[in-house]
Amino acid sequence: MDTASAAPEPLPLDGITVVAVEQAVSAPFATRQLADLGARVIKVERPDGGDFARGYDTAAHGLASHFVWANRGKESIALDLKDPRGLEVLHRLLANADVFVQNLAQGAAARLGIDSAALCARYPRLVAVDVSGYGPEGPYAHKRAYDMLVQCEAGLVSVTGTPERPVKAGIPAADIAAAMYAFSGVLAALLRRGITGRGGRVEVSMLDALAEWMGHPLHHTMHGGEQPVRTGLAHAVIAPYDAYATADGDRVLLSVQNDREWRRLAEQVLERPELADDPSYATNAARTVNREKTDAVVAEALGRLRADEAIGRLEAAGIACARLNSVAQLAGHPQLAARDRWREVDSPVGPLRALLPPIGLPGGAAPHMGAVPALGEHAGALLRALGMTDAQISDLRRDGVVGVFA
Fold first, then answer.
1. pLDDT tens profile 13-56
2. 251, 281, 298, 396: which could join 243 in a potential S-S bond, CB 3.0 to 4.6 Å?
3. Which pTM was predicted?
4. Interatomic CA distance for residues 19 and 75, integer angstroms
C-alpha cells in the first residue's frame, strides 16, 4: 500500500464526549487539550455571564485572552444547575458522556450531586474528574484557591525573583500544573477503562500539582537543609549564567557549563584570552566566588555588541545562549514561523491567531482547533439532540434555566 496516499490516522480522542462544568483556567485548559485531540467537549456555563474568565479582559479583539486561550473547540450551553430542570439536562448529557470535569468551589459539586464519587456510582463507565485548589479534605480544603495564592502556598514565589524581592510566576503556573495533571489523568483513566470496562474518579489539586513541580527546590531543601536562594536570572552555583545588556538595548542570556566553555568564551567572545587561566576565573568555583567580577567582564564585552552580534559570537564559540524575548517577540519568533506553528481559529469576533498544540502526531489528522464559543451558542442544538421540543426549550429559556443562545 502507498503510505504516502493513505488516509491520516484519526485523532486519538475521536468519539470521546466530555462534559465540563468549568470556570477560570485549570479545568478549561485541561479540557481544551482533550478537544485538541479530537474529543467533543460540551462546556456547561452559568446563564448569568457564563465562565467568569469571559470577563477578565477584552484584549483579544473584545474577548478575554484567558478565555480564548483555554476554550477553543468547545460547545457552550448555559444552564442553571440550581434549578432541577437544569440539573436534569446536565444528567441527560452525562448519560452519553465518557468524561466529566468540574472545578467548582469546594463542596459545590457535592451539593449538586455531581462530584466524582456520586457520578461514578451512577454512571459506571464515566471518568469523573474533580479539580480543586487544595484537595477534598484537610484544613485547607475550603480555602479560596486562586492561582497566585497557591503559588505562595506551594513555595514557588519564595524561589522566584531577586535576592531582595520574591515575585510570582508571570503565568498561572498552579492552574496550568493542575490542568495538565487533569488532562493526563483523563487519558490514563480512559486507558484503564479500555481494559476494565469501568471509568472511575480522578482527583487533582492545584497545590498537589504545583508541589510536584517544586521537586528540585523541595528535595534540595529537605535533604540538604537549605532553601535555594533567589538569584533572578542568574544561576545559584554556575557563573557566568545570566542575562546581559547589549548595545542595542536587548538582553542576551548565556550559560557557561564548564571550564572548557569559559576558555572559549574568554578567547572568542570577550577577547580576553588571559582570563582563561586567571585564577580568579579559571574554574567555576572561582567564578562563582567572584561572581561580580565575572559578570562585570562579560557585561562589558556584550555591552559593546548588538544582540545579533553577541548571539553570533556566542554560537560560533559553542556557548549556550538565548535572547531575553518579550511576549511580542515570542509572537514573531522565527522558529515558530519556520515550523508553521500558527493557525487561525474562529470566534464570535472573527478569526484569531493561535498556536498549534504542543503534542504532535505525525501521520495523523490535524489537531481539532475549533472555534471559541459564544455563551450558550450550542444550547439549541444540544437540547434538540436530547429530544426536547422547541416548546420545552422556549419554556426553559423563558424561566432562565437555559441561557440565551443563537
1. 999 999 999 999 999 999 999 999 999 999 999 999 999 999 99
2. 251
3. 0.93
4. 10
